[in-house]
Amino acid sequence: MELLCNAPPHASVPERYIFPPEKRAAMELDGVDGPDDGVTLPVVDLHRAALSGDEGLRQRVAAEIVRAGKEFGFFQVVNHGVDKDLVRGFRDAAAEFFTMPAEKKLPYCSNDQSKPFRLATSTTYDRGETRYWLDYLKLQCHPVSDELVQLWPNEPTSFRPRLTEFSEAVHELAQTLMRLIAEGLGLSAGFFAGDFSGGETQMNVNYYPPCPDPRLTLGLLPHCDRHLLTVLSQGDVAGLQARHNGRWLLVRPVPGAFVINFGHQMEIITNGALASVEHRAVTNSAVTRMSVATLIMPKMECRIGPAPEMVDEATNRAKFREFVFSEFMEAYYTASASREDVLESFMIHEN
């Protein structure tokens, strides 16, 4: 497997990574700034007090999250309770993994999506022959067990303990966010607990080496997430873009923040109130960028459809049919992660 992280710096972009002009990101300043008209994502202060007994503050934070979600589908959170040293510890360990000699990483290279830990490059989705400018780790990260940890690499030596700590802390943050989202929508606090969020939590660690000409490439294809909720550590290097009002909005890094976005399952369960928004990654020529996305998944046998509380037969009929999550996963891969194509399979059309 030909990994970017194994190759010496490229003087020019290899032909297989060059996208046709109509698919490129129209970037300025080496792919770091884009046509976002100065719009920035909302930053929600979780106020650790909101997680305790201050009911009024909790309600205000919940309402702010839902308001941000309805407008953008993305927001950032600060004062979230995940220690910055814990975040830095895992990010450093993951970055060290990518920079290890090629022969040490070779045993983990695989395109077999059933593996609970694997290293690969470009993308598994078929959008043509052009390759995306990234390497990535895909791994199962929660619930943590001795058997699971043994599947993770033992080099660097810090990888296993740092991933365990990071996974546990981010999982707790995700549970907090789902409770606040539920309350902000007028649902019971535990609405998203159980099967909706009880699947095996996945993690994508995306590694984007410097690209000699970011104008020609993309780091990650435009897509929407297939699951319920994403908690992303994007570090201090910009590159994530989200669709907003028909244009691409650069998600500018906020120190210590996590970026939160909704997956297709959240859109379907809330009957469109909280939409899954298309996003992509662009490259830059100056520095390596690495993002760590934790993906909260339903159980494969979970039945999903619009929550009765989010449907009104007179004014807001159900927009989606009920299905089993495993059926959605199959449709998602068949549609190569295309938002329109995958949702078309589950939408209810009025006669």
Automatic annotation (TrEMBL):
MF annotations from Gene Ontology: metal ion binding; oxidoreductase activity
Domain Fe2OG dioxygenase: 199-298
InterPro entries: DIOX_N, IPNS-like_FE2OG_OXY, IPNS-like_sf, Oxoglu/Fe-dep_dioxygenase_dom, Plant_2OG-oxidoreductases
Gene3D superfamilies for the chain: B-lactam Antibiotic, Isopenicillin N Synthase, Chain
PROSITE patterns hit by this protein: FE2OG_OXY
Record-given protein name: Fe2OG dioxygenase domain-containing protein
Family: Belongs to the iron/ascorbate-dependent oxidoreductase family.
Keywords, sorted A to Z: Iron, Metal-binding, Oxidoreductase
Taxonomy of the source species: Eukaryota, Viridiplantae, Streptophyta, Embryophyta, Tracheophyta
